[in-house]
UniProtKB/TrEMBL annotation:
GO terms for cellular component: membrane. The keyword Transmembrane helix applies. GO terms for molecular function: transmembrane transporter activity. Pfam families: PTR2. This is Major facilitator superfamily (MFS) profile domain-containing protein. Keywords: Membrane, Transmembrane, Transmembrane helix. The keyword Lyase does not apply. It is a multi-pass membrane protein. It is found in: Membrane. Coiled coil: none annotated. The lineage of its organism: Eukaryota, Viridiplantae, Streptophyta, Embryophyta, Tracheophyta. It comes from the Eukaryota.
Length: 595
């Protein structure tokens, strides 16, 4: 099994080699392609079934069964989702540094299965819930809230699921893309199509979770609903393991965080060193794997060959001097951070779809004939919109954009993100208007507004996610260094994580600043619409910052290609030196003729 080691044990194979499960060079006719990529996709499909089935219907359980306040319940859900996505960074780090993507996904799937089984137990045992509460006591806030002992198993279950799902999310798309050879034009096109189908596939899993599982949880039993989620993850893990002979594997190539911190440390340590007259004099310049750039020039000092590095033996010691490739990889990561920061607020707005929007549905008219639609199932509008716009992007918007812009991509990843941000702002404006109307009707006319009005915010956020999610995922994978691919996916997931944590922070600040007058369990006594207006205003400011940063971003594929030979580099260096001498001579001549 490969489950080969980190740094290549087999002679003649470099760290970039693609191997089969026995550690031998792959036979492309027998490995990789759509079949193994599809088996890998099953893990993400099951992960979405679990996460959506839990997150989209957890607030009604916390408020209705455990009698926890709406603001606290929303914070519990966003903290759980934030932690889940943040641990994607850990999963990416472990895969890149030591375990490999395959092993990380397999272990993460097993951990997720255990967590969902624990959640099934936590929601099934009667002693894990406080006494039932009738409507009269609920209106007068006399319900007994679940105590620490009753919440303990629930917390253990949720925070066992979090690292498992985080490890799957940060590696499964990268492991799937490893099944295609990007140097083969045919397979490269198949990989691009796979990324699109990957997102479409996980949306199907989300739809199953919010419609089928939420209905089972509300009408048959939460234990059964969560039990089905656990079973799907166990089956997905078994399928993943069965496909092992057909996968293509890449060795872990060392910790990207180690490279990051080492370059920053050496650049700081050598800050007083002079820059060489030409970049080709930097360490290992002739063997660089990415083009040298002039941005963040201060980091080049980490690759400066000073007296301590003069000996040929010291040139290969990473603790003494970095290579140009390592410095450029760190530059690539740093270039992602400005765009990364502006993606956070989109997910803060998205998080409202799993918390306060679901809570709104519980206070609205949800009956169709004699059938009462579960509050959590209204999030199906979100998933359906995502599926619709994912297809429209591929069939309509992108081909149209290609004709208008003459760009192969049609819509660039940054343009997708920008469209997503605009739609998220519109969603919060729509949500504020709907909530104001719902509250006025409930108070003045004692009429419940139809919950189908929530379609406005679900539609706008869903269409925004179809653009933003794909745009962000493509941006981080394409722009990050190749050997940090899993880490870059984790970095993308951290924007989602920070979005949920920012939501928790905003709820805390608003709840205290307004003395609990905006965010109330009884929405008729609160002013949730003001919270939505606040998010719309913050989203608009964030959009302006994004537009400025995006206009200054230089795509990785647009960077100049390095000269093909050392002779060309020396010729370039010689020409630059001649131009420099001529420039200085011209300046001196001008000085000589000054009066």
């Amino acid at each position: 099994m490969v489950l080969v080691g980190s740094h290549g044990e087999k002679d003649g194979l470099n760290d970039d080699a693609v191997l089969d499960y026995r550690g031998n060079p792959v036979d492309k006719s027998k490995t990789g392609g759509w079949l193994p990529a599809g088996l890998i996709l099953g893990c993400e499909l099951s992960e979405r079934i679990c996460v959506m089935g839990i997150s989209m219907n957890l607030v009604p359980y916390l408020v209705g069964d455990l009698h926890i306040s709406a603001a606290k319940s929303a914070t519990m859900v966003t903290n759980f989702m934030g932690t889940l996505n943040l641990l994607g960074l850990l999963g990416g780090f472990l895969a890149d540094a030591k375990l490999s993507r395959y092993v990380t996904v397999a272990i993460s799937a097993a951990i997720t299965s255990l967590g969902v089984i624990l959640l099934t137990v936590a929601t099934t045992i009667p002693s894990m819930r406080p006494p039932p509460c009738d409507d009269y006591r609920r209106q007068h806030h006399e319900c007994i809230e679940a105590n620490g002992r009753q919440l303990a198993l629930l917390y253990v279950a949720l925070y066992t699921i979090a690292p498992g799902c985080g490890g799957i999310k940060s590696n499964v798309s990268s492991f799937g893309s490893d099944q295609f050879d990007v140097t083969d034009p045919k397979e490269e096109n198949a990989m691009i199509f796979f990324i699109s189908r990957f997102y479409f596939g996980i949306s199907i899993g989300s739809l199953f979770g919010v419609i089928v599982l939420v209905y089972i949880q509300d009408n048959i039993g939460r234990g059964l609903g969560y039990g089905i989620s656990a079973a799907t993850m166990v089956i997905a893990l078994a399928v993943l393991l069965c496909g092992t002979p057909w996968y293509r594997f890449k060795r872990p190539q060392g910790s990207p965080l180690t490279i990051l911190w080492r370059v920053l440390f050496l650049a700081l340590k050598k800050r007083n060193q002079s820059y060489p007259s030409h970049p080709s004099l930097l360490n290992d310049y002739e063997n660089r794997k990415v083009p040298h750039t002039k941005r963040f020039k201060c980091l080049d000092k980490a690759a400066v060959l000073d007296d301590d590095c003069a000996a040929s033996t010291n040139k290969n010691k990473p603790c003494v001097v970095s290579t140009v490739t390592q410095v450029e990889e760190v530059k690539m990561v740093l270039k992602l951070l400005p765009i990364w920061s502006t993606c956070i607020l989109f997910w803060t707005i998205y998080s409202q779809m799993t918390t306060f929007t679901i809570h709104q549905a519980t206070a609205m008219h949800r009956t169709v004939g004699s059938f009462v639609i579960p509050a959590g199932s209204f999030s199906a509008f979100l998933v359906i919109t995502i599926l619709l716009f994912t297809s429209l992007n591929e069939k309509v918007f992108v081909p149209l954009a290609r004709k208008l812009t003459h760009n192969v991509q049609g819509i660039t990843c940054l343009q997708r993100i920008g469209i997503g941000l605009i739609l998220s702002i519109a969603a919060m404006v729509g949500a504020a208007v709907v909530e104001k109307e719902r509250r006025e009707r409930a108070i003045q006319k004692e009429i419940k507004l139809s919950a189908f009005w929530l379609f406005i915010q679900f539609f706008l956020v869903g269409s925004g996610e179809a653009f933003a999610y794909v745009g962000q995922l493509e941006f981080f994978i394409r722009e990050a260094p190749d050997r940090m691919k899993s880490m870059s996916t984790g970095l993308f997931l951290s924007t989602i994580s920070m979005g949920f944590f920012v939501s928790s922070l905003l709820v805390y600040i608003v709840d205290h600043a307004t003395k609990k007058s905006w965010l109330r369990t009884n929405l008729n006594k609160g002013k949730l619409n003001n919270f939505y207006w606040l998010l719309a205003a913050l989203g608009f400011i964030n959009l302006l910052v994004f537009l400025i940063l995006a206009s200054r971003h230089q795509y990785r594929t647009h960077l100049p290609i390095k000269p093909e030979s050392r002779e060309e580099e020396l010729k370039s260096l010689n020409n630059e030196m001649i131009e420099d001498v001529e420039k200085k001579a011209s300046i001196q001549s001008l000085k000589n003729i000054e009066p």
